Amino acid sequence: MSLLVVGTVAFDAIETPFGKTDKIIGGAATYISLAASYFTGNINLVSVVGDDFPAATIKDLNRHGINTDGLQVKKGQKSFFWSGRYHNDMNTRDTLDTQLNVLLDFDPVIPEAYQSCEMLMLGNLMPQIQKKVIERLHNRPKLIVMDTMNFWMDTQMASLMETLAMVDVLTINDAEARQLSGEYSLVKAAQKIIGMGPQMLIIKKGEHGALLFNKDQVFFAPALPLEDVFDPTGAGDTFAGGFIGHLARTRDISFDNMKRAIIFGSAMASFCVEKFGTERIIGLNQEEVDDRVQEFVDLVQFDITLV
Amino acid sequence: MSLLVVGTVAFDAIETPFGKTDKIIGGAATYISLAASYFTGNINLVSVVGDDFPAATIKDLNRHGINTDGLQVKKGQKSFFWSGRYHNDMNTRDTLDTQLNVLLDFDPVIPEAYQSCEMLMLGNLMPQIQKKVIERLHNRPKLIVMDTMNFWMDTQMASLMETLAMVDVLTINDAEARQLSGEYSLVKAAQKIIGMGPQMLIIKKGEHGALLFNKDQVFFAPALPLEDVFDPTGAGDTFAGGFIGHLARTRDISFDNMKRAIIFGSAMASFCVEKFGTERIIGLNQEEVDDRVQEFVDLVQFDITLV
Fold first, then answer.
1. Taking Cα atoms as reference points, which of B224, B302, B296, B218 lies closest to residue A261?
2. Which of A89, A300, A306 minimises the CB distance to B300?
3. Which of A77, A114, A136, B288 is the most buried (most CB within 10 A)?
């Protein structure tokens, strides 16, 4: 099973209560692809960067089994740049700077070799571009997962709703679920959003875990209680990467397998927040990943049998 | 196994976004005892009320298998009264009125017949009174669980620390864990608090579930995602009641059994918030309780086996 990942590949500059970075590698598709690479091979990336983007990083992605033929490198242009500062609670942040640069006229070209991809992960991007990607695939993938954010709800709701109607799984955070649905209760919000198109909704609650809903069922996965959250940047994308990576490996999109996928996603996200940027999710070994997944099993499993 | 429950039995008046009550029955020990009654018999209550407290409510407690010989009824005095208003998010509230009344000079007398109790649940009360209860028991119970709140941390920290050193399990919410430990990370907070005396700490996170820590292990139980939280009053006490009730029934205080106890407590709390006050946790039947516990099993159980 091959996986198509579309989203930003970018530079970030991050300030947290624990420290500050210069420009480091970021972008939704970067985190998604890296996290997915621990579960599946044959990951195909579509994105755009400027010629300021380091070739060494592209090689890092390739070493993780990520095909970058669909990563456009725009001569004389600059990569997308975001800069933000986290507050002391690490749950809220201020955007200090956003430079769209190459994203301004990003046209997502799908290389012919990617056309056979059976799963599609649409990282957070303008909803029109996400839609264009779906339209440019000759065959509809077996599963389309879409991430988005409040900014598109504020500025491009009509376009967002069109794209939403075309996907299978939506991932958003709790505040966004409330905004999109107009419901405070996440149970009611989920049912409304499922009525907008996707059969499944994942609500990410950061340090409070994640909920998976379909029309009839709900599953909850906690976040791992950590001694310190060092940098939350990319945690949601890393979660999505582990999630879609497990689904691509197993080729099973049942609710029960999505539960497992959410645990794998949560495990990857728990690595992500331990260091700045992508630092912690590059070069993990299988034993580290397995041990972390086991921590989740130990964290939530209990033995109650009702007759 | 018999259970001793000490705490307030009182009147509340509650305002939520969904409505408003006149004086209704409240009090930590009321919620604890009622919730525990679904799991164990032989519940022995120590508390104090005024002669304004309805005899019919005391009969309700008796019908739930709760022995009220230790419930002092003070002639010519009024019961403890609390009034509060919840904000729209249902997570924060303002206290509108507190009338201590009979609590002002509460002397917790332990009836001789209660002396054989093997488990003690200390509901939120002045720490000196909680300590007095422990000292008045001829034999130390097999397990002492203590609830407390930020008010005692603000006003009587020294006394709180003395009592804390005498108990096995402490239950507090996340903000209180941070206040008591001076640590923002709940993992670090838990380790500091366990260093203060109790071998176990339960951190209640309301709609975000609960964490159980001992020195080496951690377990997480979610709250049930509900369509509406109608009235959170008493949810923490109801949780504690389900928790101690299951432990009293099984006479097993291992970490694995405490995990189960936390799920039973969470299930009971999920009933509590569905209606005002104690309305929902009076007169439940076993099938309703079992079904609710099964919802928790379905909510969090997944099947990952690592080799």
1. B302
2. A300
3. A114
The answer to whether A169 touches A211, Cβ cutoff 8 Å, is no
Query: Nearest-5° angle of CA A241, CA A242, CA A248?
Result: 85
Per-residue pLDDT of chain A (307 residues; tens, 9 = 90+): 699 999 999 999 999 998 999 999 999 999 999 999 999 999 999 999 999 999 999 999 999 999 999 999 999 999 999 999 999 878 789 999 999 999 999 999 999 999 999 999 999 999 999 999 999 999 999 999 999 999 999 999 999 999 999 999 999 999 999 999 999 999 999 999 999 999 999 999 999 999 999 999 999 999 999 988 899 999 999 999 999 999 999 999 999 999 999 999 999 999 999 999 999 999 899 999 999 999 999 999 998 877 5
CB under 8 Å to B307, separation ≥6 — which residues?
none
Residue B224 pLDDT > 90: yes
Provide the residue type at A253 as one letter.
I
How does strand B19-20 pair with strand B10-16? antiparallel
**Between vectors from CA B176 to CA B171 and to CA B178, what angle results, nearest 5°?**
115
- Tell me: the pLDDT tens digits for B191-207? 999 999 999 999 999 99
- Nearest CB among A188, A226, A229 relative to B227 is that of A188
Please tell me the predicted confidence (pLDDT) of residue A54. Answer: 98
Partner-chain contact B294 A303, CB within 8 Å: no
Contact map slice: A 108-137 vs B, CB within 8 A: none
Reduced to 3 states (helix: H, G, I; strand: E, B; else coil), residue B145 is strand
- Chain B residues with beta carbon closer than 8 angstroms to that of A304: 260, 263, 293, 297
B297 at interface of A, judged by CB pairs closer than 8 A: yes
- Residues B122 and B145: beta-carbon distance below 8 Å: yes
The predicted model scores a pTM of: 0.93
Give the nearest chain B residue to A218 (CA atoms).
B299
Hey, are the CB atoms on A225 and B228 less than 8 Å from each other?
A: no
Half-sphere exposure of B55 (CA within 13 A, CB side): 0
- CA distance linking residue A127 with residue A160, whole number of Å: 5
